[in-house]
TrEMBL record:
UniProt keyword terms in alphabetical order: ATP-binding, Ligase, Nucleotide-binding, Protein biosynthesis
Protein name as catalogued: Glutamyl-tRNA(Gln) amidotransferase subunit A
General function of this protein: Allows the formation of correctly charged Gln-tRNA(Gln) through the transamidation of misacylated Glu-tRNA(Gln) in organisms which lack glutaminyl-tRNA synthetase. The reaction takes place in the presence of glutamine and ATP through an activated gamma-phospho-Glu-tRNA(Gln).
Organism: Microbacterium aoyamense
Assembly information from the UniProt record: Heterotrimer of A, B and C subunits.
Keyword Ligase: yes
Length: 506
């Protein structure tokens, strides 16, 4: 069954629909893969006990002639920030260890209804705070390209699972780049939808005005197929957009025909300096732009003067919202409770939070509480929100001139585990190109653009589009993906040395 794990979700879905492969066979192949390599990768926090039962039910329904969805029977990994009724939901934190939700997140419920088979819950930085998945309370995830390196964060578990062929599809969440940055360093595809385009109901909140759920896959088409399943209005989410959305899988198929790039105006930000980027990242980015230009795209220099303040504004807005959202973990309502003999409720709460929260979470709660405190609100949080408005205006002005904006998805390739964990500022700067999209609510996609010359590790290119124009990203992403695939001759992930020639562990 080794070849089954190498199939894209679209290819696997086609074989399932034709009866060539059963969902049980496909699911078992991925469970076997997890058993074989996840001891080294540590992409999963929990593997489902019910996956084969779900797969068998899909097979029975298909055999009975029931009309199933286009991805029915395909296995799926779920980031542990999304609550599930049949598996623990911890958000990578000790304070929620063993927590079972009474309901499924909307995206999980929609995935089940579409016939996707949940394989398990993937590792993540605690409460999605981090860029490396080293801040998980349950241990770091390793990059399948080089097990000594980080897989990105906070959704490194989902990206690593897809890159290691442990799952063809995964769900992630993106607050400042937590889908796109892991995609960049693992050679996968990651999409942050328009804010409100995918329900956040049942996603354990970090920063409610920034969080967005999205797909993690190996191809743009696969991302579109998963986005079609999870997207659309949800009355449970007050920020959910009500309009109908086009098929993103159809948009990806249209892009792959190769006609989309002709006449496309691609904006490149003049204020984004080469000096802050690894040489191999810059070279790959320029090569991808050249490939688009050769297909008829027009590269246009644009100005976004307030993007440079995005990281500073983000790291005031996010901690402020996090300090509010995480107040619910009080030792009283749910989650961990550390008893203090003879102590008050306040004593129990303080001890529980001290034991249950990790250092990065504590750091951001303190920062956010300070930013919201009397006398500092206007100076810090209020000023950050003004910068956010200026960044939104930069996007509006840019999209009046270009169809999409292109940037490197992150400044460097995957760094070594432990290299930046004691330097929060350097860790924060890793999200410099992804954060603006979250501040403005616009969609973004990262697709593999090659390997950096100096270390042979994956590099991604990011495209951003106006709000509600997610389909445009799928068309452009699929078009460039097809061009690059022709150049490479094989999918980028086939070159991952840590995976072995036949998908086995190194």
């Amino acid at each position: 069954m080794t070849d089954l794990i190498r199939l894209t979700a679209a290819e696997l879905a086609s074989r399932l629909a034709s009866g060539e492969v059963s969902s049980v066979e496909a699911t078992q192949a991925h469970l076997d893969r997890i058993a074989a390599v996840d001891g080294d990768v540590h992409a999963f926090l929990h593997v489902s006990d019910h996956a084969l039962e779900v797969a068998a039910d899909i097979d029975r329904r298909r055999a009975a002639g029931e009309q199933l969805g286009p991805v029915a029977g395909v296995p799926l990994a779920i980031k542990d920030v999304l609550v599930t009724t049949d598996m623990p939901s911890t958000s990578g934190s000790r304070i929620l260890e063993g927590f079972l939700s009474p309901y499924d997140a909307t995206v999980v419920a929609r995935s089940r209804a579409a016939g996707l088979v949940p394989l398990g819950k993937t590792n993540m930085d605690e409460f999605a705070m981090g860029s490396s998945t080293e801040h998980s309370a349950y241990g770091a995830t390793h990059n399948p390209w080089d097990l000594d390196r980080i897989p990105g964060g906070s959704g490194g578990g989902s990206a690593a699972a897809v890159a290691a062929f442990e799952a063809p599809l995964a769900l992630g969440s993106d607050t400042g780049g937590s889908i796109r940055q892991p995609a960049h360093v693992t050679g996968t595809v990651g999409v942050k939808p328009t804010y409100g385009g995918v329900s956040r109901y049942g996603a354990i909140a970090l920063a409610s005005s920034l969080d967005q759920v999205g797909p993690v896959t190996r191809t743009v088409l696969d991302a579109g197929l998963l986005h079609d399943v999870i997207g659309g209005h949800d009355p449970h989410d007050s920020t959910s957009l009500t309009e109908a959305w086009p098929s993103f899988a159809a948009a990806a198929r249209e892009g792959a025909t190769g006609q989309v790039l002709k006449g496309l105006k691609v904006g490149v930000i003049s204020e984004l300096p080469d000096s802050g980027f690894q040489a191999g990242v810059s070279e790959s980015f320029r090569a991808a732009l050249a490939a688009m230009e050769a297909q008829g795209a027009e590269i246009v220099e644009i100005s976004a003067p307030h993007f440079e303040y995005g990281v500073a504004a983000y790291y005031l807005i996010l901690p402020a919202e996090a300090s509010s959202n995480l107040a619910k973990f009080d030792s009283v309502r749910f989650g961990l409770r550390v008893d203090v003999p003879g102590g008050t409720v306040e004593d129990v709460m303080a001890k529980t939070r001290d034991v249950g929260f990790g250092e990065e979470v504590k750091r951001r709660i303190i920062l956010g509480t300070y930013a919201l405190s009397a006398g500092y609100y206007d100076a810090y949080y209020g000023s950050a929100q003004k910068v956010r408005t200026l960044i939104q205006r930069d996007f509006d002005e840019a999209f009046a001139k270009v169809d999409v904006i292109a940037t490197p998805s992150a400044p460097t390739t995957a760094f070594k585990l432990g290299e930046k964990i004691d330097d929060p500022l350097q860790m924060y700067l890793n999200d410099v190109t992804t954060i603006p999209a979250n501040l403005a609510g616009v969609p973004g996609i990262s697709i593999p653009s090659g390997l950096a010359a100096e270390d042979g590790l994956p590099v991604g290119i990011q495209f951003l589009a106006p709000a509600r124009e997610d389909a445009r990203l799928y068309r452009v992403g699929a078009a460039l993906e097809a061009v690059l695939l022709d150049q490479w001759g094989a999918p980028l992930l086939d070159r991952a040395p840590a995976l072995g020639a036949n998908g086995g562990a190194r």
